[in-house]
Design a protein that fits this description.
The chain is of the alpha+beta class and 255 residues long. The protein has a domain at 101-248. The protein is 14% helix and 21% strand. It contains four helices and eleven strands, in the order ββαββαβαββββββα. The termini are far apart. The model is unreliable at 1-13, 17-23 and 251-255 (pLDDT under 50).
């Protein structure tokens, strides 16, 4: 948009314009435009972009080994949809939500979950599954499909807090350790591999990579052999394949 200026005479204003005069020290022109072009010499500094990497967790920590949930939230209906996870006891000072964990099950109540106590969980799980599917998957696709074309009805979702995520999770430089009483499995994404698999996503989602077993940049199993899930680093979301987690680590589901 071109600049527009309007000249103002440096003389007394007409009587019908109201009180006040234009004195000799007032500017002789005003800029009447909404936008102005940057001057490439005076306004623009080249080469000033910097990439800053910080620890995700509270206190700029890059690692967290203990996790806490709130007994207060557990009594609320929201706990059927997601659980807040803290870095310290939520009743203490300095506790902050680091991420949420949600359970999704396509279709809601499962045929094996007839107990009344599970009804609310499984009904909410259908909403959780479809919510994340509508956000992350291509238009017209309603089920998560992992490497090798495997579809799953059950997922666990880790959603990192946006205020800590900033511009995104650094692909290839995160690691999630899941374990039971006998073993621990470390998960990474395959973004640092020479030819990472292309994962179809919905509009505006950004990058997506399959989650595999491994540590650092070293995979210990392929995404097809062990389809653990999909990472969406630009959104800070990890979608885990419940069946594979159950087979490789231990059951994440309510039952």
């Amino acid at each position: 948009m071109a600049d527009q200026t309007e000249s103002i005479p440096n003389e007394p204003a007409p009587a019908e314009a109201g009180a006040g005069v234009y004195g000799p020290d007032l500017p002789t022109a005003i800029n009447n435009s909404v936008y102005n072009y940057f001057d490439p010499i005076d306004d623009v500094v080249l080469g000033g972009k910097q990439t800053v990497t910080e620890g995700f967790f509270t206190g700029n920590d890059g690692e967290i080994n203990t996790f806490f949930t709130s007994s207060t939230q557990a009594e609320l209906s929201s706990s059927c949809y997601y659980i807040d996870v803290y870095q310290s006891d939520p009743s203490g000072a300095g506790a902050e939500v680091q991420f949420d964990v949600a359970y999704g099950y396509y279709g809601g109540i499962d045929g094996n979950a007839n107990e009344e106590s599970y009804a609310a969980i499984y009904s909410a799980s259908d909403a959780v599954y479809k919510q994340y599917a509508s956000i992350l998957l291509p238009k017209g696709v309603d089920r998560f499909q992992f490497a090798g074309g495997e579809e799953t009805e059950g997922v666990s979702v880790i959603n990192l807090k946006r205020d800590k995520l900033k511009e995104g999770l650094e692909a290839g430089h995160w690691e999630l350790a899941l374990g039971n009483l006998t073993a621990v499995t470390s998960l990474i994404d395959e973004s640092l591999q020479s030819s990472p698999t292309v994962v179809a996503v919905g509009p505006g989602v950004g990058r997506a990579y399959y989650i595999v077993s491994g540590s650092g940049a070293v995979m210990t199993g392929s995404a097809i052999e062990f389809p653990y899930g999909i990472a969406y680093p630009d959104l800070g979301i990890l979608v885990l394949n419940n069946q594979q987690i159950d087979d490789g680590v231990g059951s994440p589901s309510p039952d």
